[in-house]
Amino acid sequence: MTTILVLNLGSPKDLNKKSVREYLKEFLSDDLVVDLPKPLQQFLLRCFILPFRPNATKEAYEKIWTKEGSPLLINTENIAKKLSAAMKLPAMVAMRYQDPSTRQAIMKLKEKGEKHVVVLPLYPHNARATTLTTELDVKKHIKEVYPELQATYIKPFYHEDIYIESLAKNIKSQINKEYDMILFSYHGIPKAQLRRTEIGKKHCLVVEDCCNQVCDASAECYKSNLTTATEKVVQKLNIPDEKWKITFQSRIGPGWLKPFTDKELIALGKSKKTVMVASPSFVADCLETLEEIAIRGKESFMEAGGKEFTPINCLNDSNESIECLTYVINQAINKL
User: Fold this and answer.
1) Domains, the chain, with CATH or none
2) Beta bridge partners of 186
3) 181-187: strand order across its sheet
């Protein structure tokens, strides 16, 4: 029988400094996340990040942590449960970092004697720090733990019509009044990571309007993927050009994609009264949406003079979300 393995990024095991530190250490030690020479990566991590960042990160998690635990894990588990019911297949959850780990999931599949797994990373767009690191991690653990296991990998689905339709419906259902601006806030990455996905290094951030050109480079480019998806959603929702913008959040250093969401919200607070923010990088609501956008983002906008701020919930386990994920899984299985 086929089992669906639903993967997400991860979060601390518990709401304490030790767990937060362990999570940050594992996450930021991934060479596909912080792609610096290893000695420099570890020097910065151990000397400048781990001594200070865990306290601030823990405080952020305290604002959104639930009785059941991490919102990201809970939302991912809810997606897996509904997906299992819709497809009449068993589903499991694993996290790229921390627990439940990918290795633990592969071990369980081996214990059950399962022969085939559909690997579903909950990332709509291509990126080294999400889709690539997750796929490589799964392949590593399958090779080490259960090499007989056959795996089908679901690729990013940003371009699928059903995803665009699902995202548009989700956003439309939460627009219940007039607004001055809607930001499509995506997780930022260093510009250098964009170019690392391109073999020839002659297109990305070199060619004018590179993200709007269809070519081999754009198909693998995170910024091109999200630009394509956003423009299709905007068109479907008939949003005027002057009422939407793509921004980038969660930066942790210089050289990251611009414009920055936090700075845009401050500027909008001075000139606009009503703002909505969607975060389509994430299928499931998490720290970056529930705290960074819904709490800190709102505070920045209101303190700058804004009047109404509406964070748009992610797809989570909505009917549209499950229909979309069921479709992309069936498409992959039918090609076998």
Assistant:
1) 2-157+319-334 (3.40.50.1400), 161-311 (3.40.50.1400)
2) 248
3) 244-249, 181-187, 274-278, 308-311
Residues with Cβ within 8 Å of residue 232, at least 6 apart in sequence: 164
User: Percent helix, strand and coil across the chain, each rounded to 5?
Assistant: 50, 15, 35
Distance of CA 254 to the CA centre of its chain: 21
Q: What is the pLDDT of residue 219?
A: 83
Roughly how many angstroms between the first and final C-alpha of the chain, as a whole number? 14
In 3D space, the residue among 122, 128, 121 whose CA is nearest the CA of residue 221 turns out to be: 128
Hey, what's the torsion of the CAs at 317, 290, 9, 258, to 10 degrees? 120
CB 4 within 8 A of CB 91: yes
Token digits for 194? Answer: 């964009």
List, for residues 109-119, the tens digit of each pLDDT value: 999 999 999 99
Q: What is the CA radius of gyration of the chain?
A: 20
Q: Give the pLDDT confidence score for residue 21 in this predicted structure.
A: 98
Distance between CA 150 and CA 146 in Å, rounded? 9
Q: What pLDDT shows up at residue 218?
A: 78
On the question of a cis peptide bond just before residue 12, with omega within 30 degrees of 0, the verdict is no
Residues of the chain falling short of pLDDT 50: none
In angstroms, the CA 216 to CA 203 distance is 10
Q: What is the value of pTM for the model shown?
A: 0.95
- Partners of 244 in beta bridges: 182
